[in-house]
Amino acid sequence: MGRNAYRVGIVGLRGITSKGVEDPVQPFRTEIVHSHAAGLSVIDGFEIVGVCDLVPDLLDDFAQTWSRRWPNAKPYADFSAMLREADLDILAIATGDHTHATLAVEAAGAGVKGIFCEKPLATSLEDADRLIETCEANNVVVTVDHTRRYRPEWVHVREEVRSGAIGKLTTIVGTLGGPRAMLFRNGTHMIDTICMYAESQPAQVWARLESGFEHWDSYKGDGGKLPENDPGAMGFIQFENGTRALYCGMKETQGMFSLQLSGADGQIYVTEENATVFSSGPDRVNGVRRRIVPRTYVAEGIASAYEELADLMENGGEGVSMARESRKTVQILMGFLASQQAGSALIDVPK
Fold first, then answer.
1. Is the pTM above the cut of 0.85?
2. Which CATH superfamily is domain 149-297+330-348 in?
3. What are the respective helix, strand and coil percentages of the chain, to the nearest 5?
């Protein structure tokens, strides 16, 4: 793009964008980064030049944490003003779940060429399509922060599945627990991870939402702030290629994020801490247990996603977590709500 560094703006300054770099802990030998600013701070070629939030204290907190690293990051309370003045190449959107499309559409019209959107992509298919169509019309690349697509352990598991380590993938069981097992806020991570392994279009779903959310025929949440305003859910997904998945996202269970991937010749069990392959023997009973160890890597998570976004802006191509891929998760979320309204019946996924 003819510059020494991509000019980055951030809208929404909660922890996912502003948290500082953490000191390394075993088994890691380098800093741990869990925020946009932290991820950008450990890679070259990016400069945060503007940050925007409606809460003055969050602007102050960002400056206190990052002013030495990003001294030119100008604070804004007015998003439109940041777009007019900051001459952004890339915009990071980390506002309420239901606001992403409106901000992305405005940014695309203002000349931004790369958008890093927090999950979910949108809370309705109408918003998802509005975002996708506007960004494509303006040649804007959109990456969505489904970060497990950029984490070596989870990527290596997909390579194991593709290699036939467990035979043809037939079923996936995803378990999300803890008080923030909220369907739209954190359930999107689990549903997207299921889609990553299924590698197919969702076809049919059924679901049952947490009690008290029977009126949810559309998203009615607060943008992801309070668990009581976003339901837990149980759901089933039938994919076009025959893979079937069960989504278990209930707040009353132990905090966890785990998947069980099953095929004709074995299983893979993967958590945030490790992944293990259980390969069946000739009698399909006795077999071999093997831990999956990812290859050496340089960058992961948010840092890796930003590096990919820059490459896509320069060279084109298909990224691992782009808007059209993330639309599948929105389809499933909308399908879950529609199924609930139909008495938890099996229904076709909204197109």
1. yes
2. Dihydrodipicolinate Reductase; domain 2 (3.30.360.10)
3. 35, 25, 40
